[in-house]
Write a structure and sequence with these properties.
2 copies of one chain form a homodimer. With 137 residues, chain A is mainly α. Chain A has 6 helices and 3 strands. Chain A binds a DNA duplex (20 and 20 nucleotides) through helix 3 and helix 4.
DNA sequence: CGGTATCCGCTGCGATACTG
DNA sequence: CAGTATCGCAGCGGATACCG
């Protein structure tokens, strides 16, 4: 018997509410997590470098997100006992195994931003004029 | 001059706060969006089917998420004027172009759930015993 | 069936201040 | 430099009720 999901006989399936893989999906499906994994693809980076690279992130969000990723075994945190202090974050093997996917999501966003913006404008324009189609004839 | 980001001369880069591709990334980096795109990979599905498939989603969240995806041109909503009403959602070409990525994220979550759970246990155990390493010798 | 409308509790997140 | 601690508000998501 397994404990990844809470009901008796089942399969690992993120569609299921109780399945632990759902929590993994939730951890990945986060803009900061996605950008952090992508940012760390080419090697370790310091906290301050990450903060500047992820434009707009607060120190608190960065710390929190990195902590969750460290707990999940996605990143490795290394403290160098120097003055001033120096902390580096790098992807673990596990983290590297998902980095391609996260890079893909980021790149897709950048490559299709024009189509999305166009779709949004068209939708908003239609929403002004026509009322939204409602079920029932 | 372009309008995808708000500063003058720049590149499309989701790392930048003002860049429109950041909003696209935010739209994708959402557990329900990810699962919905994956669920619709093999063809149109009705609202009620989706609600049952995405275990734990509320009607409100499902409606909201689908609306955003429709606005972004990821899904197409079709109303059949029958009684009882019937509304189907399907991926657009744009949506299909990102479906592989979303399937990958879902599958990665399922395939690595064991490693993640083990990492979490180890982390939580360490957190009880050792105090967290702090910067500065 | 597939919504919309409303209320509402919780927490996620930003802002700020402080520390080893 | 890389955090931690605290406060306070906005917004999200759940619960419920109603509708075409």
């Amino acid at each position: 018997m397994d404990t990844k999901c809470d009901a008796g006989n089942w399969s690992v399936d993120a569609y299921l509410r109780g399945c632990a893989s759902r929590t993994v999906l939730e951890a990945l499906a986060n803009k900061w997590t996605c950008l952090l994994i992508d940012a760390l693809r080419h090697g370790p980076l310091r906290f301050g470098v990450l903060r500047r690279k992820l434009d707009g992130i607060t120190q608190k969000s960065l710390t929190q997100t990195l902590r969750v990723m460290e707990r999940d075994g996605i990143v490795i945190r290394t403290v160098y006992p120097t003055i001033p202090p120096r902390v580096e974050y790098e992807l673990s093997d596990l983290g590297r195994s998902v980095a391609g996917l996260m890079e893909g999501v980021k790149r897709w966003s950048e490559e299709h931003v024009d189509e999305i913006l166009t779709a949004r404008e068209a939708y908003d324009l239609r929403a002004q004029e026509e009322p939204r189609p409602v079920p029932v004839a």
